[in-house]
Amino acid sequence: MRTIALALAGFMLALVAQPAAAQQKVTLRLHHFLPATSHTQADFLEPWARKVEESAKGRIKVEIYPSMQLGGRAPQLFDQVRDGVVDIVWTLPGYTPGRFPKVEVFELPFVAGTAKATSQAVQAFAEKHLADEFAAVHPILFHVHAAGAFHMNKKPIATLGDLKGLKIRAPTRISNKMLAALGAAPVGMPVPQVPEALSKGVIDGALLPYEVTTALRIHELTDSNTEIAGPRGIYTAVFLLAMNKQRYDGLPDALKAAIDAHSGLETAQWAGAVWEKTEAQARQVAVEAGHAFNRIEGPELLRWQQASQPVIDDWLAEMKGKNIDGAKLLDDARLLVTQHTDGN
Questions:
Q1: Which end of the chain is least crowded, N or C, by CB within 10 Å?
Q2: Would you give per-residue pLDDT tens digits along the chain (344 residues)?
Q3: What domains sit in the chain, N to C, each tagged with a CATH number?
Q4: Is 227 exposed, middle or buried (0-12, 13-18, 19+ CB in 10 A)?
Q5: Is residue 191 within 8 Å of residue 212, measured between CB atoms?
């Protein structure tokens, strides 16, 4: 009888334990480098977090920590999520130069289209080509911002010759190489450093999308903008929303499914649309601030495209040196941008 009683007790404990495990609740800490007032947090990260929480029926709570509140610098975010210092990060692979060479293909001059089309393209490209490059983390989403423009302080740019010697900020090694090829003096730095660099005259301007300028008040520190005409922008930057691999793998299936439901191509399309909407809103702020606007088009645009071609050639040579078929990656990236542009 004692044996039977013990067995029954063990069985009852197992029954109690199973629902407890099934109802496991987790808190995920999401770290990023922009202010809480940025559109990235207000229009993208917060809605994404709420969607995940709703899909998880309250069993996931996402806590967002902006402005590097959990410590470190923006270029360290990838390692923070890889090492489990935080659970999720939103960052730029390009903040660690040369570490992720394949994904740089979308940052080459005149490859990117609209934010919506190119975000879908880079997500599809990642699913096909980037598993090895990002194997150390669990990628949730790749996306891009709208094609960048020049935001200048007292040094307007209307022609290629106007760039000569100007100190201009860019975010990644590819965009810095492009600036050098165009005759500028590139200054690489994460975007949170740009306002101080402008105010102190460390840089004459910055290569940025409009959407980030309002939260950082960059429109108050610049007085002219130069935009690139045509269906392909002069540059974009690739963003990554990624989760610690062990943290994701250790979740119950139902909670993995809640995250998976807001990952991948459909979420990339949504992110791209968010960036396009906020890009237009932020540009209007520059208009209302009285900025001058220059547009590079026609024969002048051709000069810029020709001057930047060596950046593409150098990247292809680098890929060859790494035994990577860069030409195939470039062709695929361009094709995916075209397909998703036509499909929008």
A1: N
A2: 454 544 444 544 544 444 555 578 999 999 999 999 999 999 999 999 999 999 999 999 999 999 999 999 999 999 999 999 999 999 999 999 999 999 999 999 999 999 999 999 999 999 999 999 999 999 999 999 999 999 999 999 999 999 999 999 999 999 999 999 999 999 999 999 999 999 999 999 999 999 999 999 999 999 999 999 999 999 999 999 999 999 999 999 999 999 999 999 999 999 999 999 999 999 999 999 999 999 999 999 999 999 999 999 999 999 999 999 999 999 999 999 999 997 65
A3: 25-145+237-279 (3.40.190.170), 149-235+290-315 (3.40.190.170)
A4: middle
A5: yes
Q: Which residues pair with 28 in a beta bridge?
A: 62
Query: Can you tell me the distance from the alpha carbon of 115 to that of 269, in angstroms, rounded to the nearest whole number?
Result: 9
| Residues 280/286/289/294 CA torsion (nearest 10 deg) | -120
Q: How far apart are CA 250 and CA 19, in angstroms?
A: 17
Cβ atoms of residues 88 and 28 within 8 Å: yes
Nearest-angstrom CA–CA distance, 84 and 282: 35
39, 41, 43, 44: CA torsion to nearest 10: 120
Concatenate the DSSP letters of all residues of 172-208 into one string: SHHHHHHHHHTT-EEEE--GGGHHHHHHTTS-SEEEE
Where does residue 41 rank: exposed (0-12), middle (13-18), buried (19+ CB within 10 A)? Answer: buried
* 1-5: long-range contacts, CB 8 A cutoff, minimum separation 24: none
pTM attached to this predicted model? 0.91
Amino acid at 196: E
CA distance 220 to 195: 9
Residues 6+ apart with CB under 8 A from 53: 60, 61, 62
Q: Judging by DSSP bridges, how do beta strands 167-170 and 185-188 pair with one another?
A: parallel
Q: How far apart are CA 3 and CA 9, in angstroms?
A: 10
Q: Are 123 and 265 in contact (CB under 8 A)?
A: yes
